[in-house]
Amino acid sequence: MSALIELRGITKIYGQGQASFKALDGVDMTIEQGDFVAIMGPSGSGKSTAMNILGCLDVPSGGEYLFRDVHVEQLSRNERALLRRHYLGFVFQGFNLLARTSAQENVELPLLYRGESTEARHTAAQAALKQVGLEGWGHHTPAELSGGQQQRVAIARALVTNPTILLADEPTGNLDTKTSNEIMALLTDLNENKGITVLMVTHEPDMAEYAKRIIHFVDGNIDSDVRKREIT
Amino acid sequence: MLWSSFLLALREIRRNLLRSFLTILGIVIGVSAVITMVTLGNGATQAVKNQVSSLGSNLLQIRNGQRMMGPPGGGGGGGSPPFSLEDVAAIRNQITGLAAVAPEVSKSATVVSMSNNWSTSVTGSSNDFFIAGSWKLAAGRTFSEAEEKAGQTVCLIGETIRRELFGTQQPVGESLRVNNFSCEIIGILVSKGQASMGRDQDDTVIMPIKAVQRRLTGNQNVSSIQVSVADENDITSVKEQLTNLMRERRRLGDDKDDNFNVQDTRQIAEALSGTTQVMTTLLAAVASVSLLVGGIGIMNIMLVSVTERTREIGIRLAIGALEREVLLQFLIEAVVLASLGGLVGIGLATLASIGLSQVMNVPYTFNVGINLLSFVFSAGIGVLFGYMPAKRAARLDPIDALRHE
Ligand SMILES: Nc1ncnc2c1ncn2[C@@H]1O[C@H](COP(=O)(O)OP(=O)(O)OP(=O)(O)O)[C@@H](O)[C@H]1O
Ligand SMILES: [Mg+2]
């Protein structure tokens, strides 16, 4: 079986000429179906940049990105949008929820673009909110929720579509240890029982312990890649 | 997809009530101002035309003073001698091709019948007055020769007087008290309707001129003479003859200017409708400014919310929306807001125009052209400025749209 994701010599250069900055410098990476990967590394080492490219939100400056043997770097904007719609769930470093929009509606949004019925959207969104421990909070707008609660709404929005792969950029960055552990338990559960491949950026070694594999970034490249547990 | 985009757009409108309201407000103000002003201006022009055509056709008016126009009956001649009944007789005898020559003198008076009283203007003239002014009889008769000669106190009344003093009663044969004398009502005139600028032509009492001179003005003066020309083609030549005759009668040397003037109704019509047309144009110009201000208001609101909207677009793109789905949603949102504003504007303008035209006494007509034009213009602004920023944002990579500041 071929890998779910394969990166070959991915580079990302911000800016132009003298002011240009190489955020990623030839990253090679292979991710199998069912893996749970934690990406760590100092601030500015290119973790978010790599996640955005993996999440098809941004395009690399060079290199190849294969998603199930499809060359993502050759896809059109619309094709990448459809890839995001059908296979990916993304949790942003900032929550990026729609303002003045209830948690329920925020979570329903990806389903809306998948063309699912109102009924199906309601049920799925409620289930997702329940999964992240926000049952009964559906009618609150982001302004009425704490940072941790907003983060959980963002996670619910990412997993409501049952994505093939869940990408989370510091999902516990704003949470206390107890809630962080709950979130990690949730991600582990999704990975173990639903077979969702999870990619997560974190600064906390405790959280990285939940993962099956830990990749360290330094200065735009992979410094170390350690497997802790086998993929089941 | 269209339907779900439509629902999404409606939800967005509801979610951003203040922004939606301000956008609509800008369009409403622009649309309603332009429509109201232009409609009223057109109404005023129409009213003037109606009034002039109701004055009578092929009509020449000789008035004292030098040229210059003014409303009929106004503007006396400073320093020039008044006309007299001899002038009227001379015109009648010496100029051919006339349908009627009517002297005119007016005075305001209070008329009383039983317990009702009304203040109006009493005009002294002859039977020719009815021919020149195209007046028709609703009931009764005009003056007899004897009544005219002797200046007997008989009168014909306009529709307004009939309504105000007699209501449902039949006034012919009744007596009407005018200031301190009484006169017999011998006829009623058919209504000509209200003229513009609040002057009601039906608010009038007509008496033989000698009666008015003796009982009301107390002198032999005639303030103006109306001449109706039988054949339209003769108007210019009759006008010239009248001028020469009057100069002769007043012994004006070649070095003197006319101290009277002869106007024909067409001239008056052109002058008056020219004036109202200028007014209409001016109103339209003022209104266009408000349309523009409304448009700039819409533009500002839309541009201010660009940052927030760009982030929103970034989020939608990130979770898998296609560029065209996002654009459709924003387009529908802009169109719905703009149409709503346009329709409310048209409704408001229609109400305001009907109300104001009643107050101003001008006829109201629904002007399709201006309604359409101002609607399309301001709705266009709304759509353009609602849609353009979205179009730019939807072309960004989602991550760039999310980073927008
Ligand atoms: N849009 C951009 N334009 C220019 N430079 C950028 C841009 N985005 C990121 N960078 C630069 O690229 C480098 C990597 O950024 P990135 O956000 O990937 O870091 P990170 O590893 O996620 O850091 P953190 O742990 O603080 O989130 C940084 O030096 C940053 O300044
Ligand atoms: Mg980061």
UniProtKB/TrEMBL annotation, chain A:
InterPro entries referenced in this protein's UniProt entry, alphabetically: AAA+_ATPase, ABC_transporter-like_ATP-bd, ABC_transporter-like_CS, MacB-like_ATP-bd, P-loop_NTPase
Q: Which Pfam families match?
A: ABC_tran (PF00005)
Q: Give me the Gene Ontology terms describing cellular component.
A: transmembrane transporter complex
Q: What family classification does the UniProt entry report for this protein?
A: Belongs to the ABC transporter superfamily. Macrolide exporter (TC 3.A.1.122) family.
Q: Would I find Ion transport among this entry's keywords?
A: no
Q: Where is the ABC transporter domain?
A: 5-231
Source organism per UniProt: Thiothrix fructosivorans
Q: What is this protein called?
A: ABC transporter ATP-binding protein
Could you name the domain of life of the organism this protein comes from? Bacteria
Example GO molecular function: ATP hydrolysis activity
Keywords linked to the UniProt accession: ATP-binding, Nucleotide-binding, Transport
From TrEMBL, chain B:
Endpoints of the signal sequence: none
Q: Which InterPro entries match?
A: ABC3_permease_C, MacB_PCD, Macrolide_Exporter_MacB
The ABC3 transporter permease C-terminal domain is annotated at 286-398
Q: Where does the protein end up?
A: Cell membrane
Molecular-function GO term, any one:
transmembrane transporter activity
TM segment ranges: 21-41, 282-306, 327-356, 368-387
Its record classes its membrane topology as: Multi-pass membrane protein
The protein's superkingdom reads Bacteria
Q: Which GO terms describe its cellular component?
A: plasma membrane
Residues in domain MacB-like periplasmic core?
20-244
Listed A to Z, the keywords are:
Cell membrane, Membrane, Transmembrane, Transmembrane helix
Family in the record: Belongs to the ABC-4 integral membrane protein family.
Q: What is this protein called?
A: ABC transporter permease
Protein source organism: Thiothrix fructosivorans
Q: What is the lineage of its organism?
A: Bacteria, Pseudomonadati, Pseudomonadota, Gammaproteobacteria, Thiotrichales
